[in-house]
């Protein structure tokens, strides 16, 4: 990927250990495209449900399947890109301006999201028509 202007998978550090492996992120690491301001996670997603359905004006995000698997579908206004996340040491970087939906959650999956901004509804574009208008003006 072009460095952090495009969505793409980011490999996080892995500490292998016979007791169980460990992955971490910390601000300042080269692997991190932004300083982390907030972390949230979704869990107990019922079979067949989808989440997301929005884009952000400013917020950058890294999504990690800390448990299980799910699909992430990204739209820049022209083309869709599809990713499957299923490795706790791999993150999907999503720059601002991408419409995203998440689906095909496996049972017990957890989607952890590291973000560059505090939560504010003002940063969301939740109407697809508005997203299309904004993306065609870019
Ligand atoms: P939403 O962004 O719609 O979730 P998703 O994109 O994962 O489907 O958020 C669901 C609700 O949670 C919405 O009312 C906003 C609230 N929320 C917070 O209060 N703080 C947060 O950090 C996030 C991500 C959401």
- Unreliable stretches: none
- Ligand catalogue: thymidine-5'-diphosphate
Query: What is the approximate shape?
Result: globular
The number of distinct helices, counting runs of at least 4 residues, comes to 1
- What is the H/E string? EEEEEEEEEEEEH
Number of strands: 12
> Strand pairing plus helix content: what structural class?
mainly beta
Using only C-alpha atoms, the radius of gyration works out to 15 Å
Distance between the termini: 20 Å
Instruction: Give the fraction of residues assigned to helices.
Output: under 10%
Q: Approximately how much beta-strand content do the residues carry?
A: 35-45%
Instruction: Characterize the biggest β-sheet.
Output: 5 strands, antiparallel
Average predicted confidence as pLDDT: 96
Strand order of the largest sheet: 1-9-6-11-4
Could you give a quick summary of the protein structure above?
The chain has 138 residues and is mainly β. The protein is built from one helix and twelve strands.
Features:
138 residues, 7% helix, 5-stranded antiparallel β-sheet, mainly beta, globular, binds thymidine-5'-diphosphate
Describe this structure in words.
This protein is mainly β and 138 residues long. It has 1 helix and 12 strands. It has one helix spanning 128-136; strands at residues 8-11, 14-15, 22-23, 38-42, 51-56, 61-67, 70-75, 80-85, 90-94, 99-103, 110-115, 124-125. The strands form 3 sheets. It has a 5-stranded antiparallel beta sheet with strand order 1-9-6-11-4, with no helix packed on it. A 5-stranded antiparallel beta sheet has the order 8-7-10-5-12. It has a two-stranded antiparallel sheet with strand order 2-3. Strand 7 (70-75) and strand 8 (80-85) form a beta hairpin. It is globular. The protein starts with 7 loop residues before the first strand and ends with a helix. The mean pLDDT is 96. Thymidine-5'-diphosphate (TYD) binds next to strand 4 and strand 5.
